[in-house]
Amino acid sequence: MSLNKTYKDMDYLLNEAPREQHFITGAQAMAEAVKRASVDMAIAYPITPQSEVMHLVGDIYAQGHIKEYYRAEEELGTMSAIAGAARAGVRVFTATSGPGLLRGLEAIVSWPGHRVPCVLGVLTRVINAPLSIQPDNIEMAYLMHSGIVMLHAENQQDTFDFTLAAFAITEKVDVYIPVSVATEGFFVTHAKGYVDMMSEELAFTEPDPYHAPVPVMDNEVPPARIQRDAPVQKSNFMSYLIHSVWQQEVWDSNRRAMKYIYQYLGGPVEVLNPGADVMLVASGCAAAQAREAHRYAQEEGLSVGFVKVRSIRPWPTDEIRDALKDAKTVIVPEHNIIGWLCKEVKASIPNSGIVVEGPRVYGGMTLPVELIMTEIYDALGMESEILQA
Amino acid sequence: MSLKYMTPASKFKRYLPKDYVELVDYGPFGKDYSEVGVKNMGTFKELVEEHPMCSGCWMAYYIKIIFASLPNPEDTVTIGTAGCGRLAISQAAVPFIYGNYGDQNAIASGLTRAFRQRFPDRQKDVITIAGDGGMMDIGFSMTMHAWFRREKFTTIMLDNEVYGNTGGQESGMSVEGAVLKMSPKGKNFGKMPATQLAITAGCVYVVKMSPTNINKASKAIRRAIFAARKLGPTFIHAYTSCNIEYSIPTPDVFRDAKEKEKGRFAFEEYMTPEAKELFATIESKKKREVS
Q1: Domain extents in chain B
Q2: pLDDT tens digit string along A43-61?
Q3: Is the ipTM of this structure higher than 0.85?
Q4: Are strands A278-282 and A304-309 parallel, antiparallel or unpaired?
Q5: CATH number assigned to the domain covering B57-290
Q6: Which of A48, A254, A370, B146 is deepest in the core (most CB within 10 A)?
């Protein structure tokens, strides 16, 4: 099937192309981004709630927007095949959820070191027992130390924009590591929201594997003794050195992704009402609730600000520190029990004692705005009267 | 294939690594099998020369046969996993991919499909080469599913009947009763029926052998690659003893391989009617060209 596509760079697509508003689910938003990304191959394996995304991507393949698509045997097979296809020089996409992410994790955590550019959708769900299919983003904690770039979408619009931007960021010569786009299962993937999208006749410029910083494994330049990337074999200082400089380069690449997060997405954080006494810091779906709490607080005339974190990796230490420099209390609402975002925030500021642990919900619970408001009243020493009012 | 890239400008040649220049001048790239190939090993620059395998390693010998048999080394990519084999495979002048434990056939699935997209009019040969543990134990699901999906690449299992690289543990391909690490009282089940599994899963060409005859071994490898190009998955199950873990004195390695050939590695060759037809065409054409 030949579709009439006009290929454009990501700056044009995200920042200049005219957009029309649609009312769609988060899963649709991710698939619509894939449709515009000139993806060569998508590999799917079912798991709720991710399946919805990969069903839609399958439809897009059937319509001719993607050249190759198949259902793999399970997630380790999926993630390994993604690495194989990427090394052959094509643009790839897959998505997973919770237990699927963990099953594929051995391959996923090797991608940055293997310099595999790809986009991974993470539609979060419970991973720990008692198992459930409900939203909970604890799985993101397992990705945070892998070297992969991690974007966390608040809503359907973010899911669309972040996913599209991810395809450009992952292929940048000075990045060239995978980019994950996470958002909350069901709360975002299965709920509809307004998404401004450019025409589907516009598509991201096709990939050029010969602009990569590592050799594409297509044997187009024989003879070459090249390998990607066997273990460093010996127990000696050279092998330690190779491993260490390699991983330093992975994390430097991760940090270098930051300038593209500014370029395409306006930066790793969004700050409302800086300088307020109480600052709310949140990412993903929790940011939507925190945003709402911030709005309530403004209506009540309270000194409350809001920081939304778009990028979990690279972690915006300087931006967070700057946004929180005048805060007396920091509240970090989260959709997981361990508080991974809270730990990151605490580690970023000199006065971590001002950070409130929570509120946190997990196992599929929603995060009522009132829960955040309670913490705000508490922080401002005005809890009972207001709550009863 | 881009053989045009490989010929260096004459004035530049002296500055290039000797190994590269020798590969260009005396290697098998772009040459006919009758000029290079296993029959002429020792007379051309082989793709695998130096390697860190043990003295007397039958696996290293077989890997050299694999690389000398490639119909098109300038358009071949190999994939392997943890194990002794990749120590030699990774030294070859053919690009080699090492993924994670046992995932070689999954990587090959993505790679082969991507090559078909990028080079629709050209053949890129993809070969996975891994041990019995990598293929039949830890990579079992990915091995089998690649076959069920009819992925068009060649799978070669180097079966030394033990985890050699990790220190001699029982594998699914060890024989019943074998006393190995992790089977201190002897293995309590037999070898997994790898070739039968391959046939059931849809491989179009399947061979089991102890590669004591290099021409016969080479013919099987080439057939497997030719059939994978056009018809579907192919599988070679080769005996490549571990003379360390099974304490086979170096001078006896060949004798051991001959013995296995009379026993559980007796030559077996399965092919679909389509594969048979394909080989008849290719091999008669070759004969005509030679005569």
Answers
A1: 57-290
A2: 999 999 999 999 999 999 9
A3: yes
A4: parallel
A5: 3.40.50.970
A6: B146
